[in-house]
Here is the input.
Amino acid sequence: RMKIKFSLNDLFNNDKFLLVFSLAAALIIWLMVVVNVSPATTRVIQGVKVNIDSTVPSQFGLEVFGEKDFTVDVTVEGKKYQISSAALSAEDIVITAQTNSVDSAGNRTLQLKPEIPEGADYKIKSISSKTIDVYFDMPKTVQMVIEPQVVADGFSIVEEGFTSGNINLSDTSVTVTGPSTEINRIEKVVAKLVLEKSLSSNKSAKAEIVLLNDKNRSDFKYVTTSLDEVVLTIPVLQTKELNTVVGFKN
Here is the structure.
């Protein structure tokens, strides 16, 4: 049986082996330098979600109304392999809006606190915004009667020789939901229909649901309604003037 003798001297005298060995050694040395010697670098991670801590506000019955989904851009600093897109994403960083002082309704400017996982070797250098503005209030839901409101700009609702009957609505009430501060300012709810000309026949059309305050204005930001519109019907009746005759009996 033939015996194969292994000799390191023969290997290092082999040009092909030397080439492969040199490349492998260079790669190992480069990786060691990158991991242990490379200087710190920075990277901006976009779209990091802001978590609004509801622990304290919920104890006072408060909720967030309006904008709830906030994101910030975070600049991190660390070694390149530690903060690369493959090693670190927006989901790995936690940004919390501090709500410890929220105990009543109103607009609040909340401080943002960044956090990184325990044991992470990188650090957060800066965030694109240090605060966010959030509106807190107690939620409230009410049922309100809808009143018809027909608008005729500069002309009468019906043509001459006609009169309008009682206006009908497809729905007579609506559920209104939102912050109690705004709900309490609602004076009435109307189904608003704007006419383009005077009527000479029955009119049925979709009317917009509008919330009005005591100054007849609609300036509610965070209120929602179960209906956006209803069908408003205006009966139109013709009128005629008749001469009367007096008759005597017995």
In short: The two ends are 154 Å apart (CA to CA).
